[in-house]
Design brief:
By secondary structure, the protein is mostly helical. It has two domains: 88 residues, Orthogonal Bundle (Rna Polymerase Sigma Factor, Chain: A), CATH 1.10.1740.10; 117 residues, Arc Repressor Mutant, subunit A (Orthogonal Bundle). Helix content is 65%, strand content 0%. It contains ten helices and no strands. The chain is elongated.
């Protein structure tokens, strides 16, 4: 699914659209729920499936979240954007689905797999260059599949910030507000998640030929539809 990142600087059209949505919800307009789904349905689902890693659970989480939005719209005070408010409700619903599972999905500890660093912050291991290889369409297809798999290995709270920041294009402040964490924590989670994805893609590309290209190539791959 191709996605266009949101402009971190809210445009007048986006602000007007959201304000009209809030007004319709508060007035209990007949088309309010339909407008909510049309405006935030796909985005909320991408966040929910990014957290749950499971289509049916994600769908149920979005349904629960949107029902909560409709019922509790009068509690929205406008301290943050309505989008951030909806994302936060969606994230909470998705985490609730995870807590309710009888069997947790296998998730890794990032501390065990992140690349090692010297005290000055530089990578301790060698950094290869596979920038030429990623121009191969066949490699790009496999790279997207590898990235999709790697994102699925991330703990849920790391998947959430990657989806919000790298797929939906939210600012760090918006990401933090959406999942109820500090900006510093949001930055740390995005950074650590990217390091993990970079390592996983480096392992994949070792057979065909550049972690240095990761910041652009992997983010572009996520935006082009590989994110859960």
């Amino acid at each position: 699914m191709s996605t266009q990142p949101l402009d971190p600087q809210a445009t007048p059209a986006r602000v007007d659209r959201d304000s009209q949505l809030v007004k319709a919800l508060r007035l209990r307009a007949p088309t309010a729920a339909e407008r909510l789904v049309a405006t935030y349905g796909d985005r909320a689902y991408r966040l929910a499936i990014g957290i749950t890693g499971n289509g049916p659970d994600a769908e149920e989480a979005v349904q629960d979240a949107f029902w909560s939005v409709v019922r509790n719209i009068d509690t929205f005070r406008g301290d943050s954007s309505v989008g951030s408010w909806i994302y936060r409700i969606t994230a909470n619903a998705a985490y609730q689905k995870l807590r309710g599972r009888a069997h947790r999905r296998g998730e890794i500890s990032l501390d065990e797999v992140l690349p090692s660093f010297h005290e000055d912050g530089r990578h301790a291991g060698p950094v290869g260059d596979w920038s030429a290889s990623i121009d191969d369409p066949a490699v790009q297809t496999e790279l997207r599949a590898a990235l999709d798999s790697a994102i699925g290995e991330l703990p849920a709270h790391y998947r959430a910030v990657i989806v919000l920041h790298d797929v939906e294009g939210l600012s760090m402040a918006e990401v933090a507000g959406s999942v109820g964490i500090t900006v510093a924590t949001a930055k740390s989670r995005v950074h650590r998640a990217r390091l993990f994805l970079r390592k996983r893609l480096s392992m994949f590309m070792a057979g065909v030929g550049a972690p240095e290209a990761f910041e652009n190539s992997s983010t572009n791959a996520i935006k082009s539809g590989t994110a859960p």
